[in-house]
């Protein structure tokens, strides 16, 4: 199956996605990272799934023991290695979330910035994440709050204007789904979707809204 991010929206293009001129979008991106940062004690082994070029990895590296960013795009991982060169406890690895294997477990696994949608996660991917968590560890999934919809659309319009994405298909873009005329599609995990995931896993979980822009699902492993 083709992967829009890996094939078209990687490396410098992905970098430009996050170079937004929209203050409310910057606030959302900062608030999402800040929420995770406040929950780190400084010693955790962290994995960020679908980490792109390591934007979030860089922001968290000084607040944990070690952090690995994994991404399906080798171009992103190459850019990430350069981007993270001053952070000795941070590394990047090329891997598909659907075939994720590591020798060790992690205390914290992150799948942020609507990552479950980007990797097209299925229940097997989520079960594997739980297996890779150490006892006492936690996984953080985040998606968009419905209250952020108008800003999210503005951000995608900005990306389309920069030529990073195709023109937005406004007939089909609604109810948390963004569709562009070149085949790009991004979904949302609503609080109800996150509740279904939490219930299916059967471990203690919380669903939290942050900054009226993100929705987090945090699952704790006993
Ligand atoms: C919207 S970007 C987010 C990047 C990063 N999390 C951030 O917030 O800066 C989505 C990322 O998911 C990655 N991705 C898509 N499918 C993947 C998969 N199956 N396994 C691992 N990464 C994947 C893409 O290459 C892309 O870097």
Going by CATH, the homologous superfamily would be: Vaccinia Virus protein VP39
Main sheet attributes: strand count, strand direction, barrel closure: 7 strands, mixed
Bulk shape: globular
Number of domains: 1
* Order of strands in the sheet with most strands: 3-2-1-4-5-9-8
The secondary-structure class comes to: alpha/beta
CATH topology: Rossmann fold
Number of strands: 9
Helix proportion range: 25-40%
Radius of gyration: 16 Å
Output the CATH class name.
Alpha Beta
**Termini Cα gap:** 35 Å
* Percentage of residues in strands: 15-25%
What is the overall pLDDT average?
96
List all distinct small molecules, including ions and cofactors, that are bound in this structure: S-adenosylmethionine
CATH architecture: 3-Layer(aba) Sandwich
Question: What is the ordering of alpha helices and beta strands?
Answer: HHHEHEHEEHHEHEEHEE
Number of helices: 9
Domain Methyltransferase: 46-137
InterPro entries: Methyltransf_25, SAM-dependent_MTases_sf
GO molecular function, one term: methyltransferase activity
Keywords: Methyltransferase, Transferase
Describe what you observe in this structure.
The protein is of the alpha/beta class and 222 residues long. The chain has a single domain, classed as Rossmann fold (3-Layer(aba) Sandwich). It is 36% helix and 23% strand. The chain is built from nine helices and nine strands. The strands form two sheets. Strands 3-2-1-4-5-9-8 form a seven-stranded mixed sheet, with helices on both faces. The protein has a two-stranded antiparallel sheet with strand order 6-7. It is globular, with a radius of gyration of 16 Å. The mean pLDDT is 96. The structure holds S-adenosylmethionine. S-adenosylmethionine binds next to α1, α4 and α6.
